[in-house]
Amino acid sequence: MSNASHQASAEPRMTPAVQWLIAANVGVYFLQLTLLGAPIVFGALGLDPSRLSSEWWTPLTYMFVHAGLLHITFNLFALWMFGPRVEAAWSAKAFTWFYLWCGLGGALAHLLLSNGSSLVGASAAVSGVLLAYALRWPDEEVYLFGAIPMRSRWLVVWMIGINLVMGITSNSTSSGIAWFSHLGGLAFGWIYLRVMSFGGLDGFRRWVSPVPDEPEDAFRAVPRSRTRRQRADRGDGIDDIVAKSNALATRPARPALLPRVEDREKRAAERLNLVLDKISKHGMESLTNEELKLLEDASRTLRDS
């Protein structure tokens, strides 16, 4: 695996969520070695595709079970090395959900692409944490296997490549490593971070369905009951709205793993600019009811600010 270089500014070496996850993994491993034994723990918590219908909880619990000392040491060292800095940038709750989500991605990939073998270990969840670290600090220097220096972004590229090649060319039953599970954790981590960069599911839905540039009813006339005075009132604040919208749209974007208010404002300004461009081309009477409402909301927000 890899070892992150120490920062001049002191980063937290242990955070609540990482501490809890490490403790949970160590606790389960202790039960494997002492009170219950590995067969009982594997049978109750490990993911066995043939028993999934009756043991529905195992796609979540499998990531707290490990096959041996080297397996758990490898995963928990990577979690301890990269997890606290990511958690400090987010929050304990957000980090925990992200970790579990990546683990579920590993379970799904294993169920879809494996040959029916059982699955244990936190590797998929930890792979998602490494992806989050690399996307947040892509130029951070890390050490592959503790000896080979590389930037964190290339570590993730190397992980994707080696897991893809080994997953295709090897058999998980004979090798004992669930390569496709690691890829599932990386894929689910990327999806999570991508959706969050749009402001969550609501922001993502707004992004994939913007205000149409030229809808079918773009040239439909506004009902005659709308008076010239009402149209003039709407036009009074257009110049101010344009100025504020342009200021938001041209504000330099800052990369983030979690939603930022500035990003939501910028996307709203871009949608508003579509409406304003339409007004400049075809006039106020070409607006649809939805576009008129968007313009009214922007005008109201401007007056209240």
Quick structural overview:
The protein is built from 14 helices and three strands. It has 305 residues and is mostly helical.
CA distance, first residue to last residue: 51 Å
Structural class by secondary-structure content: mainly alpha
Gyration radius (Cα, Å) is: 26 Å
Give the overall silhouette: elongated
Describe the overall structure.
The protein has 305 residues and is mainly alpha-helical. It has 14 helices and 3 strands. It has helices at 16-33, 38-45, 58-61, 69-89, 92-113, 123-136, 152-169, 172-175, 179-197, 200-208, 228-236, 238-249, 261-282, 289-304; strands spanning 2-4, 141-144, 148-151. A 3-stranded antiparallel sheet has the order 1-2-3. Helix 6 runs antiparallel to helix 7 (152-169). The chain is elongated, with a radius of gyration of 26 Å.
Keywords:
single chain; mainly alpha; three-stranded antiparallel sheet; 305 residues; disordered N terminus; 64% helix
Topology summary:
Layout: E1 2-4, H1 16-33, H2 38-45, H3 58-61, H4 69-89, H5 92-113, H6 123-136, E2 141-144, E3 148-151, H7 152-169, H8 172-175, H9 179-197, H10 200-208, H11 228-236, H12 238-249, H13 261-282, H14 289-304
Antiparallel strand pairs: 1-2, 2-3
Helix pairs in contact: 1-2, 1-4, 1-5, 4-6, 5-6, 5-9, 6-7, 6-9, 7-9, 12-13
